[in-house]
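Subgroup meeting minutes
Present: P.N., E.W., G.H.
Scribe: E.W.

1. P.N. recapped why we're keeping a running log of single-chain structure predictions: easier to compare across weeks, and new members can see raw inputs and outputs side by side.
2. G.H. added today's entry (315 aa).
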Amino acid sequence: MIDPRDLAVATAGLTKRFGEQVAVDGIDLAVPYGAVYGFLGPNGSGKTTTIRLLLGLAGATAGEIAVLGEPMPDRGREVLPRVGALVEGPAFYPYLSGAANLARFDAANPASDPATRRTRVVESLDRVGLTAAARKKTKAYSLGMKQRLGIAVALLRPRELLVLDEPTNGLDPQGTREIRALVRSLAAHGSTVLMSSHLLAEVEQICTHVGVMSRGRLVEQGTLEEFRGRAEAQFVVRSPDPAEAVRVLVGLGLATETTGDVVAGSVDGRPLPPAEDVVAALVAAGVRVRGFAVERPSLEDRFVALTGEGFEVPR
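Output recorded in log:
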């Protein structure tokens, strides 16, 4: 059984099959309360299917789900009012204004008080930065404005958890910045955010935790710093004495590669020695050091190593 006391979202052995195809393959998701969790993976890796399972929009083939400490989908009626979601893009009445669309969504909720509807609509539009466009018809909204309006729908009521499926998909740089700032604001106000993405830049800038999906499997998860730390680092020494630098680094237990006057030293599966000790050893051996750096593979390199695929870059 899942022990979800410290987790806003938890799964155990979560599996979804479509006939012979396994879309989600026994994943154990762990999203801490207060996190901005970047749910990463190439398109088709199982992210959206997993989100649909979490929200009760599809039934699992096997496994357990707990959302905000409650089993899903059994407790969905109690849990889902505490969850806001934007899944597979928002849809609105094009000839109604943003405010009118929000009012319709609010009216569809039987728990909403009509007497305070206007206040909720105004506050939601303000939180996503659409006050100035409140009376504009949504057919005239940009894609970024529609994404923000979709999040405004999720914010018509206080939400402990926000689930956003590819919220920056298809946006221009300005729209991407707007969504990024909004997610930061939501987290600052105490919401847990689970955000799927295949854009590495977004994850690096706003997420505290990451989980990486590949071909239906969760291949790694943890804090962003842990994810960075698992990438193998190396020392890079630039010197007119590369042979002597190699001798020193090998003496310290490092494997080396030399390209001209640049020597790279790394270890396999062990922490690097302290950088200051390496520099001291080089200087003590009379090696002339023109440059010294600790280099770590980029997050994209780490992602490619885990999945065999690259991230798309926002245009």
